[in-house]
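Repro:
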Amino acid sequence: MTKKPTKAATPTAARADAKGRAPADAPPASNRATRATRAAERRSAIVEAAIEEFIARGFAATRLDDIAKRAGVAKGTIYLHFKDKESMFEELVRTVIVPVVAKLNALPPPTGSVRDLVEAFAGSFLREVIGTRRGDLVRLIVAEGPRFPSVADFYYREVVSRGIAGMRALIELGIARGEIREKNLARYPQILVAPAMIAVIWQSLFARHAPLDAQDMLRVHLDLIFGERRTT
């Protein structure tokens, strides 16, 4: 018995693809965009919930179940975006803290004094960290970093090392211009950012006893390094 020839469906589909049309069973582009938007919104909700949970409970006590509940998603949804609690915390550091430090390495060549550049960056850093969730995350790392070395190591790579490199470059420029007399300061750029760390820690521990004017402390600190500003 001779079989009837079947329709040449494959060449037809090939011609459709050649004309740029999607296969018949492919979802419309609008549906794909909607799904992508919803996924991004869920990820954002998870990140926001994670920030609140980490700050409220600490790294050790935070549970994915609590994050999922606060975000309004199933626990399994979290695993679609993050491998585990540690990778989620790393994402918080990347999105919340790294952009602030990245500004230091993106500074334009100074047209004025190096002090002006340092003061502008440090002042911005204090405003964006002191009294904000960024400051809470920094304090969390200081408090729990020794118990979770991998978290501390990640923070050093992504934040601390970049900050130190940027500060060292500014110090060396200040020395070359004659604005900074103590050349050994380049060996210890941590000194330049010390007021920021003091302010972050002081805010959580002692501010209710003795409020600290972080901006004024920064000004005094820079006077010690660059010399007092001359008034005309």
